[in-house]
Amino acid sequence: MLRLEMKNFISVGPGKFRTCEDLLQHGYRGIFIEPVKELLDDIRSRVSWDNAEFDNCILAAKNSEYPFYQVVPHKCKNETIKEISHVDDIRNSFYRIPNMAETGKLAWHIDSSQPLDEECLGTCKYGLVPSKTLDKIIDDYWLSEIDLLQVTVNGYELAILGSYSWRIKPEKIIVDGSHINHNHLLDLLSTLDYNVSRIEDRFYASLR
User: Fold this and answer.
1) Which of 31, 44, 69, 74 could form a disulfide with 107 if both were Cys (CB 3.0 to 4.6 A apart)?
2) More confidently predicted of 123 and 20
């Protein structure tokens, strides 16, 4: 069957990896999903092509919204806190407190290697972040095929993939496995007819 639309990708949590950005120069339509507005704006400043779209939300297991805490610079005594304006130094500063799946809370933290303590939480700005399922993203952007899905969400990857209907199977999937059970991910993708390879904590799946 002749395919008329351009190839596409969905990049979830792109503040950490830039795997997909070069594809825009090769004619792909790109959808970037990032809950931290400052990080999304940073991506937007690097990507000026008309074939890039941006969604300031979190990809999650349900369509809802989550509490969001953003650290205010210089009001927390934790020495890991830096200027929030230094987006390039922050990279993926999206941090769970302690587990989004259990608490329903999200936080933006400068150094994700250090836990947020109660003192820091007391100096945070509070807000709500809208969440969307992968099925809703597909509907919102009128996707009939997905060439590449990249998911980097600090431990919520299995919840996202497990709640998806798989009515459209991406041709290729890249998943950050740093914070999830690798065997569970492999079992899920194998059941869905994907061949999976691994480089360190990143998993690359191709539809058979």
Assistant:
1) 69
2) 20
